[in-house]
């Protein structure tokens, strides 16, 4: 392989990683609108980054064996999870207590990370069919998604201070809209 083809492949993978990471940014922006400490923001970014490594890796391995049927199922599941989380956040914003029903801690963090990484599973299936370089691909997806999640969370945290009580409803609306976009591409 010559340097131009390697560079071209790196640029292509980086663009794909950015495209996949934008959902992590969007969800991070929505999650950042609830009160989070910096330590939570750090762990959320790491967790979503790990899921963006693990999910396409599994997808690539399965994609080498199967067709892309599971990609559609993964997208539908991810969209449905984001819609449910968005609705939950919107309803929680109208309750009198400050504690949301699902928070990005423990099981809630796993649900958030899974919902935004299911589309990377679908991409992994496709890349597995075409025989992409596994290690480079999944590491780029993970690192870019982690960084974009942190950026989204930090921007959301900053905006949350300006919006006050309405910030959680806005965050839920972002998750809801992104879930609908996954289910009904327009």
UniProtKB/TrEMBL annotation:
The chain crosses the membrane at residues 12-34, 41-63, 69-94, 106-129, 135-156, 163-184. Keywords: Cell membrane, Ion transport, Manganese, Membrane, Transmembrane, Transmembrane helix, Transport. It is a multi-pass membrane protein. InterPro entries: Mntp/YtaF, Put_MntP. It is found in: Cell membrane. Pfam families: Mntp. PANTHER family: MANGANESE EFFLUX PUMP MNTP-RELATED. HAMAP family: MntP_pump. Belongs to the MntP (TC 9.B.29) family. This is Putative manganese efflux pump MntP. It comes from Metabacillus endolithicus. The lineage of its organism: Bacteria, Bacillati, Bacillota, Bacilli, Bacillales. The gene is mntP.
